[in-house]
């Protein structure tokens, strides 16, 4: 496993943990193709709290307009990873 894939795996686990907690869904119910919009009980407040936690956790700024409810979790992980890389993060 490359260091990039390890970072992506760790990033995925962290994103799933935050989304699971904020949306009150089991982590094993979340897949890379899961859309934020399709998570049971999803609403804009839960999404905002999750985005804020992810921003603090990874030291990035996600514009809420850049995290549409129709975005998949995989897209979110890719976006965070790209921002971290652009900011010189690991």
UniProtKB/TrEMBL annotation:
InterPro entries: ACP-like_sf, PP-bd_ACP. Transmembrane segments: none annotated. This is Carrier domain-containing protein. Residues 6-84 form the Carrier domain. Pfam families: PP-binding.
């Amino acid at each position: 496993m490359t260091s990039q894939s390890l970072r992506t795996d760790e990033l995925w686990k962290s994103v799933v943990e935050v989304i699971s907690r904020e949306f009150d869904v089991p982590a094993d119910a979340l897949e890379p193709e899961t859309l934020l919009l399709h998570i049971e009980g999803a609403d804009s407040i839960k999404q905002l709290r999750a985005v804020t936690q992810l921003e603090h956790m990874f030291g990035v700024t996600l514009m809420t307009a850049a995290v549409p409810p129709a975005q998949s979790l995989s897209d979110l992980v890719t976006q965070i990873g790209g921002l971290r890389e652009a900011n010189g993060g690991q």
